[in-house]
Design a protein that fits this description.
Largest sheet: 36 strands, mixed
Shape: elongated
Number of helices: 3
Number of strands: 36
Strand content: over 45%
Length: 382
């Protein structure tokens, strides 16, 4: 399930940090695109298309071009570019049809961005009075859809940023880079149906500190890459389809990665690096999978996976790797230094190779239907 409760806490921090200083954003149309520039205060705005060629910018405790009332700008025929600078800012891009590129630069501060209608967000978030204060009417867009015809880029800087996208179609590449801070990125929903579509590749770089990436009920037609090279991360991808490859790269800290109920047309690669990491893979179908658990006392459980090939590299540490109720044509399991424990049970396939390497290693196998089973450097069979 997606971890939405922390988003409400971030909203509270945004409200509590508001000062008495007046804040204003400037909005204009240039070359057919909408440009919005915030100031150093806490800017809170919503953006929506009212009709063909027109777009409305509304401030919440924020003026737009010096006015408290919504500002309607005509001649909008292309993209949206938002630069919010300093302060704890929020921007909500509602339903509409964006012909050009969409670019959000949230700047420094504890910022949040919401793209698309929010009817599929969890009820506890919609009913939160702080959510309603920043995004008034968020629960009223029950049938709207945001369409981004070209690329989507969302950039953070310093601060704890939160990004949510739901009920949205993105035609071009989508990039999320939140830089420093404990950031949260939510794509899709847990509403039980696919409402969010990415017609090209998606790249997510959460940045430093403890980050959360939760992706559910989405369709991505090409690759999905999640790259969190520093600090700990929690990654959850569920109930989705990836038309290319799924790549997850985490840090030297303790990371938790869960892949559940996925169809991946290409391959799955997860590199968890150092730290005592956890990798769970449940009901996943792909051509092949590579799992690198890195140095540390790691734990990995694969349940009901369907693959042509599987490579699992445990590296140094006392690791525990288990595969159960799965179908893998050819599988390769590699230990390293440390006392590793391999469990292979209720699994079918043509060939399985287990290399224990250094340390006192153990292998438990039962209920399998594997044509040929090869075991090397494993001291103990259970």
């Amino acid at each position: 399930m997606m971890k939405w409760c922390s988003m409400a806490a971030l909203l509270l921090a945004l409200i509590q940090s508001q000062d008495s200083k007046a804040n204003n954003v400037s909005a204009k149309i240039s070359g057919g695109s909408l440009f919005i520039y915030g100031d150093s205060a806490n800017n809170h705005i919503t953006i929506k298309s009212t009709s063909a060629g027109a777009i409305t910018v509304t401030g919440t405790t924020t003026t737009v071009n010096g006015a408290a009332a919504p500002v309607v700008l005509n001649g909008w025929t292309s993209g949206i570019f938002v630069y919010l600078a300093g302060g704890n800012d929020s921007v909500w891009l509602q339903a509409g049809d964006v012909i050009g590129a969409t670019h959000f630069d949230l700047g420094s501060g504890n910022d949040r961005a919401l793209l698309g209608s929010s009817d599929s967000l969890p009820e506890e978030l919609l009913l939160d009075p702080l959510f309603e204060l920043i995004f008034p009417g968020a629960d009223e867009l029950a049938t709207s859809m945001l369409r981004l015809r070209q690329s989507l880029t969302v950039l953070g800087f310093a601060g704890a940023d939160s990004i949510a996208i739901t009920n949205c179609t993105v035609a071009g590449y989508a990039t999320f880079d939140t830089a420093a801070g404990a950031d949260e990125i939510y794509l899709g929903s847990d509403a039980g149906e696919v409402l969010t579509y990415f017609q090209n590749s998606v790249v997510i770089v959460p940045g430093s500190e403890t980050d959360t990436v939760s992706i559910g009920e989405v369709q991505i037609n090409r690759d999905l890459t999640i790259d969190d090279p520093t600090h700990a991360s929690v990654v959850d991808v569920f109930n989705s389809r990836v038309g290319g490859n799924l790549l997850v790269f985490t840090s030297l800290a303790i990371d938790n990665v869960t892949l559940e109920n996925l169809v991946v047309t290409g391959f799955v690669k997860s590199i968890l690096k150092d730290g005592s990491d956890v990798f769970d893979c449940i009901n996943v179908r792909a051509k092949q999978m590579e799992v690198f658990l890195g140095i540390g006392d790691d734990k990995s459980v694969l349940t009901n996976v369907q693959l042509e090939r599987l490579w699992a590299y445990l590296e140094d540490g006392n690791d525990n790797f288990k595969i159960d109720q799965s179908r893998v044509t050819n599988s390769y399991y590699f230990g390293a230094g440390g006392n590793d424990f391999f469990t292979i049970q209720n699994t079918t396939g043509s060939n399985a190779y287990v290399y224990g390497d250094g340390g006192t290693d153990s292998l438990k196998r039962s209920g399998n239907s594997i044509g040929k089973f090869y075991v090397y450097s494993v001291e103990k069979n259970l």
